[in-house]
Design a protein that fits this description.
The protein has 507 residues and is of the alpha/beta class. It is built from 17 helices and 18 strands. The protein has 3 domains: 73 residues, Arc Repressor Mutant, subunit A (Orthogonal Bundle); 242 residues, Aspartate Aminotransferase, domain 2 (3-Layer(aba) Sandwich), CATH 3.40.640.10; 123 residues, Aspartate Aminotransferase, domain 1. The structure holds pyridoxal-5'-phosphate. Pyridoxal-5'-phosphate (PLP) binds next to α8.
């Protein structure tokens, strides 16, 4: 099978990204059809005079995202994607919207999520604080240098207002970053810089309120998003999540909905939404004249495999509002994030941001723009990715050593993973309480910034934020946890089967 690619060695985009993007589009356009094989990597490399490794990396990424699949030793074959889904992403269909969103009424201020499980200053000594990054990982030296340089320049920028949508150089840097790492092709005017992801969620909610008759949210979900939705006077439909992401077969057939999803690392379960679910979700949004909030809060940290294309990168129907944050990659204290809105909403979004807060601080935005455009951001994230990967590996191997075959999910990316406790174990909340008394912070979903709309799911899931803990502390904590759970299981009334899930390693 011959592939017609146009590769440009002088482009800012790497050759592997060019191959990935172009083959992906050939599949989505239906020009490469289900069952067709990709050419051998060696042949493609020779034909385009690139290294074989470049082609292998691009093909691995296509396989990781579900566009192609291996069949024995015969190579990679295009997966079956329903023709309707292909139509949706290949031919731009403008939204059905006829009236612009009604400007938000001056009403209740929306709530903000504190994001600190357990809250307060009284933190456990070894704390698997969900979503917290390593304080020592903050790029203090470079940041100080950039800020000092900015402060030694002229004071005009500090004295003046800047564009409410954000500093142009920061928005440009964000657009480049999204193009390189998330397969998103966006213009700077689509980007609105916000005070973190939470502010971006609020911005999108305010922007779409007038269009929205129904709210949908993955369940369980991020508490910060549920708080925003719950403060709206609209019906909420929680949609269950399974091992492929949100259950698109459970989406309501209601027009003008707004749905919140975390496709790259579902919060809290950590599941990655499969390609077929992504396409089904986009199709549903087109069919019901609905919009999607894609919260991509932590996918800078993907440990096993290439970066994932955002749902927004697949969206040709202008249905997806993408939410990003620098809270995980640089520092939550900066309070910087952004929303990427479909082009037709960019001016409305800018005006809304002006109305809400009239933009973010010039100093932080300018420092971040330099940090990204001078290449520090990429280096910094690469370094942290290595650090967090070792911490994650230490946690997984300690859990495997101490507890027989623990069911762990969400470990491929982000700053946390979850452990589904086996049947017969004490509840996650009971373990959390005991562990806390022993100086170890592990979190049941309800304390880890997650929310369950049904409230009926078994309390059998513990969340571990591992990024801020050195490996020796992780090992010490798991050792303690094993002792605590052993003691709890011995005290529990018979018959209990959880003893079987505990290893004897700590005795
Ligand atoms: C799922 C999810 N979305 C969004 C955020 C937003 O974070 P911030 O407002 O700090 O950018 C967080 C923070 O932990 C999160 O876990």
């Amino acid at each position: 099978m011959e592939l017609a690619l146009t590769l440009d060695a002088r482009s800012d985009k790497s050759l592997q990204a060019q191959i990935f993007d172009q083959v992906r589009l050939l599949i989505l356009d239906g020009r490469l059809q289900a069952g067709m094989s990709l050419p051998p990597t060696r042949l493609l490399a020779e034909r385009y005079q690139v290294s074989r490794n470049t082609v292998i990396i691009a093909f691995d990424r296509l396989a990781a995202e579900g566009y192609v699949e291996p069949r024995g030793t015969s190579g990679l074959f295009v997966t079956a994607i329903p023709p309707d889904d292909l139509l949706l992403v290949s031919s731009p269909r403008p939204p059905l919207r006829t009236n612009g969103p009604v400007p938000p009424e001056a009403g209740e201020p929306l709530l903000c999520f504190a994001g600190s499980p357990g809250g307060g200053e009284d933190r456990p000594t070894i704390d698997f604080w969900v979503g917290r990054q390593a304080a020592s990982g903050f790029p203090l030296r470079v940041w100080r240098r950039i800020v000092t340089k900015l402060l030694s320049g002229e004071s005009q920028y500090l004295a003046d207002y800047c564009d409410p949508a954000g500093l142009p150089q920061l928005r440009r840097a964000i657009a480049d970053h999204l193009g390189r790492t998330r397969g998103m092709h966006v213009t700077t005017d689509q980007i609105i810089v916000t005070a973190g992801g939470q502010d971006a969620l609020n911005l999108v909610m305010n922007l779409l309120r007038g269009h929205t008759e129904n709210l949908c949210i993955e369940n369980p979900c991020y508490a910060g998003a549920s708080m925003i939705f719950q403060s709206e006077n609209l019906p909420i439909e929680p949609v269950p999540v399974d091992s492929e992401g949100i259950r698109t077969d459970c989406l309501p057939n209601k027009p003008r909905s707004l749905i919140y999803v975390t496709p790259s690392h579902q919060y809290p379960t950590g599941v990655v939404m499969t390609l077929s679910r992504r396409l089904a979700l986009l199709r549903w949004a087109g069919d019901t004249d609905s919009y999607i909030m894609e919260d991509d809060y932590d996918s800078d940290f993907r440990y096993d495999g290439p970066p994932l294309t955002a749902l927004s990168g697949l969206d040709r129907g202008r249905r997806v509002f993408y939410i990003g944050t620098f809270s995980k990659s640089v520092g939550a204290g900066l309070r910087l994030g952004f929303a990427v809105v479909p082009q037709i909403f960019s001016e409305e979004a800018r005006l809304l941001k002006a109305k809400m807060s009239n933009g973010q601080s010039w100093l932080e935005q300018c420092a971040l723009a330099e940090f990204v455009s001078d290449g520090h951001f990429d280096r910094h994230v690469r370094k942290l990715r290595q650090l967090y990967k070792s911490r994650r590996d230490a946690l997984i191997s300690a859990l495997r050593k101490k507890f027989r075959e623990p069911v762990i999910t969400g470990q491929d990316s982000g700053l946390h993973l979850v452990w589904r406790l086996p049947k017969g174990m004490p509840s996650a909340l009971a373990i959390q309480t005991k562990a806390r008394a022993a100086g170890v912070g592990v979190y049941a979903l309800s304390s880890g910034g997650a929310f369950d709309f049904d409230g009926t799911a078994p309390d059998d899931t513990l969340m571990f934020g591992y990024a801020s803990l050195p490996e020796n502390k992780i090992l010490e904590a798991v050792e303690k946890l094993n002792g605590i759970m052993r003691e709890m299981s011995l005290k529990a009334p018979a018959p209990r089967s959880h003893e079987s899930a505990l290893e004897n390693g700590s005795r």
